[in-house]
Specification:
By secondary structure, the chain is mostly helical. The chain folds into two domains: 44 residues; 72 residues, Winged helix-like DNA-binding domain superfamily/Winged helix DNA-binding domain (Arc Repressor Mutant, subunit A). The chain is built from four helices and three strands, in the order H-H-E-H-H-E-E. A hairpin with an 8-residue loop joins strand 2 and strand 3. Helix 2 packs across helix 3, helix 2 crosses helix 4 and helix 3 packs across helix 4. The longest helix is centred in the N-terminal third of the chain and has 41 residues. The protein starts with a helix and ends with a strand.
Length: 120
């Protein structure tokens, strides 16, 4: 083979490699972009998810028998940056305690007296 033929083959191979590198670089950029989107979604739980986590934490660390007032105090301590409406805490707690965890009721609330729950 002549030097000119070898140079021609090398140029063709170089062009092919440059095209492949371009494709790989665009794939890397797309993957990095997808990771950023996923990280942003994964790292920012919704307000409801944060409230649910705080309520579950409060239930876990509550005394054996407790009321929604105990949960509200615990959530207020956990959430130092903002104040959550008591009604949001109370309604979320009710759903978790009665529908999800099915906590036993020690004494049903009446009027302004809250229901007393027992941990499982």
């Amino acid at each position: 083979m002549k030097d000119s033929e070898i140079k021609e083959q090398l140029l063709v191979k170089k062009e092919l490699l440059e095209k492949q590198i371009g494709v790989l670089q665009s794939n890397v950029a797309a993957i990095q972009s997808a990771i950023l989107v996923f990280d942003n979604k994964a790292s920012k739980p919704t307000e409801n998810e944060r409230l649910r986590d705080m309520i579950l934490f409060a239930i876990k660390h509550a005394p054996k028998e407790f009321t929604v007032n105990d949960i509200e105090r615990s959530v207020a301590i956990q959430c130092t940056t903002e104040t959550l409406p008591k009604i949001s805490i109370a309604s979320s707690f009710w759903k978790i305690a009665n529908e999800e965890l099915k906590l036993p009721i020690v004494q049903k609330g009446e009027g302004r007296r809250p229901t007393i729950y027992r941990k499982l």
